[in-house]
TrEMBL record:
Annotated SUPFAM superfamilies: Voltage-gated potassium channels (SSF81324)
Record's subcellular location: Membrane
GO BP annotation list: calcium ion import across plasma membrane
Molecular function (Gene Ontology), one example: high voltage-gated calcium channel activity
Acidic residues composition-biased segments: 15-35
Residue span of region Disordered: 1-35
Record protein name field: Ion transport domain-containing protein
Highest taxon of source: Eukaryota
Length: 380
């Protein structure tokens, strides 16, 4: 005969011991039948849920059929994302219209209108976060914070809470306000194709590790070469001879020769032990009012005196070109120079500085650096 379903009352230990071999053989099919019934019940319960992919219960009491949560689920699954996208675009417009220099105290009508729009946009983002938390739940794989882009939205909303709380206390924290620029990133989560492209880009970042490592070696090797060859050379200037004094008691206009455009193109000379292009003998004559001065200080004091003829000794000074930013005095500044060279912006002037101070053949260093830097990504 077909075995019947097991009753709710379990048999005692004595009855289980008295069960014969026949009853033990019948117990096996009964257990398999119960497992099959449990699986069927779970499948039926999954079919009964309106949204099987969502958590059955959130906040310990809100089921999918509960009124607040069911309303939030329907709101999220329909036109809510389109409205959110329009609000994000509006926020981009308001952020672009903001003028921080003119709106320090926000006394103009334009600033007040933009501030009102910003408050309404923030309220919408906060309501959107709460609605999604009620619909999806907070923690879990398919819940709100289980998605990376939702975590970004959560961070933006929490930063807004800190910002507005500080405004109420008359505390201005500019660093918190900069989080507003992250709001347009919320659009990535609303456009599936854009989200796929961004995820692919983020997945390829680890693959760039070898390229970055090679770039580091290029910077390190060329930086060491530059420090060993040209440390301190870009501070060479033409000074007068030691213990130099004029018989007339007058002093030189500047301690060393500096052209009128000192900040743009300083005169860098070569030390006697180097083979640079420029020397103190190449210092041009002084010009005043478009005229070339050729008189000595003793001949006609107070007139057009060529003071530049007294700067005859090249030695190391204190200042580097471009307010001290361009030099090879240490590996840090060398990396800054290398970075500027590989950007192909102003690298010719830097090459001329080094050639003037050290040797004409230093151009080989810069040509090799540009070739290696330009072909490094292609090789990888």
């Amino acid at each position: 005969t077909k075995p019947t379903r097991r009753s709710c009352n379990k048999a005692g230990p004595l009855e289980q011991e008295e069960a014969g071999p026949l009853e033990q053989e019948e117990a096996g099919p009964v257990e398999h039948e119960e497992e099959a019934e449990d699986e069927m019940c779970s499948e039926i319960s999954a079919l009964v849920l309106p949204y099987p992919e969502l958590a059955p219960v959130v906040f310990f009491c809100l089921k999918q059929t509960t009124c607040p949560r069911s309303w939030c689920i329907r709101l999220v699954c329909t036109w809510f994302e389109r409205v959110s996208m329009m609000v994000i675009l509006l926020n981009c417009v308001t952020l672009g219209m903001y003028q921080p220099c003119e709106n320090i105290d926000c006394s103009s009508q334009r600033c007040q209108v933009l501030q009102a729009f910003d408050a309404m946009i923030y309220i919408f983002f906060a309501v959107e976060m709460v609605v999604k938390m009620i619909a999806l739940g907070i923690f879990g794989r398919s819940c709100y914070l289980g998605d990376t882009w939702n975590r970004l939205d959560f961070f933006i909303v929490m930063a807004g809470v800190v910002e507005y709380s500080l405004d109420l206390q008359n505390i201005n924290l500019t660093a918190i306000r900069t989080v507003r620029v992250l709001r347009p990133l919320k659009a990535i989560n609303r456009v599936p194709s854009m989200r796929i492209l961004v995820n692919l880009l983020l997945d390829t970042l680890p693959m760039l590790g070898n390229v970055l490592l090679l770039c580091f070696f290029v910077f390190f090797i060329f930086g060491i070469i530059g420090v060993q060859l040209w440390a301190g050379l870009l501070r060479n200037r033409c000074y007068p001879e030691e213990n130099f004094t004029l018989s007339s008691g007058m002093a030189l206009p500047t301690p060393y020769y500096s052209p009128d455009e000192e900040d743009e193109r300083p005169f860098i000379c070569s030390l006697p032990q180097d083979n640079g292009i420029m020397s103190c003998a190449d210092v041009p004559a002084r010009r005043e009012g478009g005229r070339v001065c050729c008189l000595d200080a003793e001949d006609a004091p107070g007139l057009c005196v060529d003071w530049n003829r007294y700067y005859t000794r090249c030695r190391t000074g204190r200042s580097n070109p471009h307010k001290g930013a361009i030099n090879f005095d240490n590996i840090g500044y060398a990396w800054i120079v290398i970075f500027q060279v590989i950007t192909l912006e102003g690298w010719v002037e830097i090459m001329y500085y080094v050639m003037d101070a050290h040797s004409f053949y230093n151009f080989i260093y810069f040509i090799l650096l540009i070739i290696v830097s330009e072909h490094t990504p292609t090789v990888q």
